[in-house]
Amino acid sequence: MKTETSEHPQRWTQLAWLSVCNLLAMTLWFSVSAVAPALKTAWELSPLDQAWLTISVQIGFATGALASAVWNLADRWPAPRLLAASALIGALLSATIPLLFTNEMARTHGGFLLVLLLRGATGAMLAGIYPVGMKLMASWFRQGRGLAIGIMVGALTVGSALPHLIRILPLDQMAAQFLPSIGGSLPETWRLVLLTASGCSLLAAMLGFIFLRSGPWLPNAATFDWSYFVKVWQDEPLRRANFGYLGHMFELYAMWTWAPQLLRDAYAGAGYSLDSASLVSFATVAVGGFGCVAAGRFADRRGRCLTTIVSLLISGTCALAAGSLTQWPVLLTIVCLIWGVSVIADSAQFSAAVSELCDQQYVGTALAIQTCTGFLLTTLTIAALPVLQTWLGWPLATAILAIGPVVGIWNMIRLRGLPQAARLAAGKR
């Protein structure tokens, strides 16, 4: 029941459980990317085939987010149960690949297409976890949402990085100790990584069913309105915020997908172990969690536009430099860590800006449009980067990602100068 009293005493406990569930479930997103080198050999994949293993998740997520918004799924079913059920189904879909697909089957056109369909379905399930988790977070917080959003995005970031850490765990040794006792044969490492990620999502489902609850300030059901799609792009403040977000997304998921390969190439060239490259890949993505929390606090104090401009400027500079540093892996590592902090730090601020600038009757519609267009754009850069790397090399391939930050900075500067920007973060632009 809603009251006008102080903030609910359970809000931080629920935020902690929400963050843990999101972190564990998001291991599904890049689980296949983390084992891409092994799959490239086992399945005889081209660079574009490898890209499609992530692109299919992006398309599935965008489709799932749109379907959820159109049908108001988070309002038709209890949001905690929807989140837990999505994590459960996602775990089962992801586990199907290592359990049922032989390498010979995955090498065929039909087998690989089935893998992509399963990855797409997994992406659709992820749309029932992170956006629903944000809705649940809003039900517990009336104040301090900037920090709470930063923590939630940070959990998504660390969860997305976790498969790279899982890959270097001694899973082979653990399996060797267990499987002979039940008469099993030792599976390939990539299968163990995918099964471990599925296990993390299964644990998220269990925790969600047991601990997650809706807060006392659950947002009212929002009706999706297709006619508002045009308004989002006609209204200048909304258009600027959305183009800022698109510039951010142009860079973000291509960086998360291919920076590990850039690090592997640099480390291999210097004679360093690939496990070291995987550890740095984990750190490169995971360190963004700190950036999200810091940016959330900074935005509440100094303004959303300023936060996004600074983040985009730093990440764009890193994109320009990273590909030229493969001969100096230590320097590349430092740049990638800075890139990892800045590339995700501003992510939540674009959604917050749209929710503050749009007609409050259509917040759900505006956010769904922003999410879907952003994730669909990521498919282009994820697919293009390995092709560009083959043709032009790493220096130009990563530099092209800086186009996104340039577009984003321009639009956020223009938004900051508009009178409507006074509605952002209680007047802090």
TrEMBL record:
Keyword Mitochondrion included in the entry's annotation: no
| Keyword match Transmembrane helix | yes
Gene3D superfamilies to which the protein is assigned, alphabetical = MFS general substrate transporter like domains
Tell me the Pfam families matching this sequence: MFS_1
Q: Which GO terms describe its molecular function?
A: transmembrane transporter activity
UniProt subcellular location:
Cell membrane
Offer a single GO CC term for the protein. Answer: plasma membrane
Spell out the InterPro entries in the cross-references.
MFS, MFS_dom, MFS_Efflux_Transporters, MFS_trans_sf
What is the membrane topology listed in the Swiss-Prot or TrEMBL record? Answer: Multi-pass membrane protein
Keywords, sorted A to Z: Cell membrane, Membrane, Transmembrane, Transmembrane helix
In terms of domain of life, where is this protein from? Bacteria
Give TM regions: 12-31, 51-70, 82-101, 113-134, 146-169, 189-212, 241-259, 279-298, 305-322, 328-350, 362-385, 391-413
Where is the Major facilitator superfamily (MFS) profile domain positioned along the sequence? 237-429
Write down what this protein is called: Major Facilitator Superfamily protein
Q: What is the scientific name of the source organism?
A: Anatilimnocola aggregata
Q: What is the lineage of its organism?
A: Bacteria, Pseudomonadati, Planctomycetota, Planctomycetia, Pirellulales
